[in-house]
Amino acid sequence: MAHETVREIPGPVGALESRLDLPDRPPRAVAVIGHPHPLLGGTMHTKAVYQTAKALARIGVAALRFNFRGVGLSAGTFDEGGGERDDFRAAIDFAAARFPGLPIWAAGMSFGSWIALSVGADDPRVTLLIAIAPPVDRYAYDAVKASTKPKFIIHGEEDEVVSVREVRKLYGEIPEPRELVVIDGADHVFDGKTSLVGEAIEDLLGDFEKDVTGNTKSTKDTKAGKVD
């Protein structure tokens, strides 16, 4: 697996610090990944984000994770979500230019999932949405409810920030194709279980191209937990 550090993604208010994980073969897609809330310690190095990027690279997807404005070496200051959506769009622009013609996937964890899905649902270049620990009771996911793009949600069974009950409620309101994985015993940051986030990504998306039929895949058990 190759690694390429990219420190000069042009953002709306300056450069965005980034990291690009490349698969060991020509990529079949490129995923842009947003991290948890900047004011609560979220960065592109958050463990579950890291595991997501590595898992995507293992299944042949280039993974671009980056720091939102004001985090790490990224220019700017926190902007309550508006500027962060612009940052995510800039990262999509970079991915589209770096990998012309490849499908683009929008992914994010917690706050980053709200940003990724809000932007990705409306961007015609984005073909697939991934939400990890989405705080559905704190932010509006209306764009996702109207999107017919494939949607994949990974959540902790014991998430103390947003209950799995609330996530299941959102899941019931979004159209197919969709899948939900609940990781047994995991909290909001998947403490001690971040490797299972990576396993869930591989289980869900490792053969995704073979499963694009407009319908969900069959319910199955995974190493990570339960698939609904």
Question: Could you say which structural class the secondary elements and strand pairing correspond to?
Answer: alpha/beta
Helix segment tally: 6
Radius of gyration: 16 Å
Judging from the principal axes of the Cα atoms, what is the shape? globular
> How many structurally independent domains?
1
Mean pLDDT: 91
Q: What composes the largest sheet?
A: 9 strands, mixed
Keywords, separated by commas or semicolons:
228 residues; nine-stranded mixed sheet; globular; alpha/beta; Rossmann fold; 9 strands
Structure write-up:
With 228 residues, the protein is of the alpha/beta class. The chain has a single domain, classed as 3-Layer(aba) Sandwich (Rossmann fold), CATH 3.40.50.1820. Helix content is 29%, strand content 26%. It has 6 helices and 9 strands. The protein has helices spanning 47-58, 82-98, 111-122, 142-145, 164-173, 194-205, and strands at residues 2-11, 14-22, 29-34, 61-66, 104-109, 126-132, 151-156, 178-183, 225-227. It has a 9-stranded mixed β-sheet with strand order 1-2-4-3-5-6-7-8-9, with helices on both faces. Helix 4 (142-145) links the parallel strand 6 (126-132) and strand 7 (151-156). Helix 1 (47-58) packs parallel to helix 6 (194-205). The model is unreliable at 211-223 (pLDDT under 50).
Topology:
Elements: E1 2-11, E2 14-22, E3 29-34, H1 47-58, E4 61-66, H2 82-98, E5 104-109, H3 111-122, E6 126-132, H4 142-145, E7 151-156, H5 164-173, E8 178-183, H6 194-205, E9 225-227
Parallel strand pairs: 3-4, 3-5, 5-6, 6-7, 7-8
Antiparallel strand pairs: 1-2, 2-4, 8-9
Helix pairs in contact: 1-6, 2-3
